[in-house]
Amino acid sequence: MTPSLFSVPVTDLIPRRASWRSYADAPVDRGGQEKIRAFFRALPPPPFGSSVRVDLVDAPRGMSGLAGTYGMVKGALHFLVGAAESGPRDMEDFGFQFEQVILYATDLGLATCWIGATFRRGLFGDRIGLEENETIPAVSPVGWAAGRRTMKDRLSRWVVSSAKRKPWEELFFEGNFSRPLTREAAGAHAECLEMVRLAPSATNKQPWRIVADNGRFHLFLARSPGYATMLPGPDMQRIDMGIAMCHFWLTAREQNLPGGWAQADPGLPLPQGSEYVATWTE
Predict the structure, then answer these.
(1) pLDDT of 61
(2) Contact predicate 245/261, CB 8 Å
(3) Which of 19, 87, 170, 261 is buried deepest, with most CB atoms within 10 A?
(4) What is the average pLDDT across 229-254?
(5) How many distinct structural domains can be found in the chain?
(6) What is the pLDDT of residue 37?
(7) pLDDT score of 185 more than 50
(8) In sequence order, which ranges of 108-212 are alpha helices (DSSP H)?
């Protein structure tokens, strides 16, 4: 088995990750901060080759909270800030890279929370020296979780059902979109698909769909109607697809399953509002 990028198998780490919006008033020590910086500096390029970078910064002075996609972050002393150069698959590559850093922070015992809509991008752009051709698709607080979730935090999780995931038969298919894929038929890749199923997504829409086809796995984005105009900023559902690709790749890597992400559109008839993204192929 290929050594994990983390101290535990990613199949243990992914279920452990949760969105936290309430943080203790205790900084991450310098050693922990440097571990995070070293981790993202060592990341290989993302699947589509976009230029993505991640930085760890202290919370801007005087900032007591941050409005997120839903809920309010309170008490965070540090933030992960990601930047991507504009390109054809920049958001997918961004999701792929940023999620790896999120999982590494989780491995260190730290709390995080993807925030990709209502935050002041200019505030964080100044902190990382944002270039003219870059954008900040998302940030995440990172630190020690508060002893218990606040009432607002618990309410936010309930509103978006963030502890729930769609069942297999709504996400994974065999040959086309009319035949659900069973775990038995998925074979050695069943765990990869389960880690995709458990991936975080903006307001828990879970827009990924995968069609298994003779050992290949075609990934599609099933857009939520009206969602693109509901949230300002970058295309969050494309970022979600990068997160799904990250989970599949990390799991396959640890289990020594050959393959990688490529462009190999099978030309299937698609449900309305769906689009092809990438294919896992040996």
Answers:
(1) 65
(2) yes
(3) 19
(4) 90
(5) 2
(6) 96
(7) yes
(8) 121-128, 151-160, 168-171, 183-186, 190-197
Let me know whether 131 and 184 are in one domain: no
250/118 Cα distance (integer angstroms): 29
Are residue 25 and residue 88 in the same domain, yes or no? yes
- Do 249 and 135 lie in a common domain? no
Question: CA 121, 14, 171: angle at the middle one, nearest 5?
Answer: 90
CATH label of the domain that carries residue 185: 3.40.109.30
Supply 211's token pair: 């069609």
- The residue from 101, 133, 157 where one domain ends is 157
Is 234 inside a domain boundary? Answer: yes
Query: With 50 as the cut, is the pLDDT of residue 161 above it?
Result: no
pLDDT tens, 61-113? 655 555 443 457 888 999 999 999 999 999 999 999 999 999 999 999 999 99
Higher pLDDT, 56 or 227: 56
Strand residue runs (E) in the chain:
52-58, 65-67, 72-74, 78-85, 111-112, 134-135, 139-143, 172-174, 208-213, 216-222, 260-262, 274-281
- Domain span at residue 62 reads 10-157
Query: pLDDT at position 234, please?
Result: 86
Cα(9)–Cα(3) distance, rounded to whole angstroms? 9
Count of residues for the chain? 282
Same domain, yes or no, for 147 and 207? no
Q: Is 230 helix (H, G, I), strand (E, B) or coil?
A: helix
Query: What is the Cα–Cα distance from 142 to 120, expressed in whole angstroms?
Result: 17
SS (H, E, C) 3-50: CCCCCCCHHHHHHHCCECCEECCCCCCHHHHHHHHHHHHCCCCCCCCC
| 47 & 153 share domain | yes
CB 224 within 8 A of CB 208: no
pLDDT band at 158 (very low <50, low <70, confident <90, very high): very low
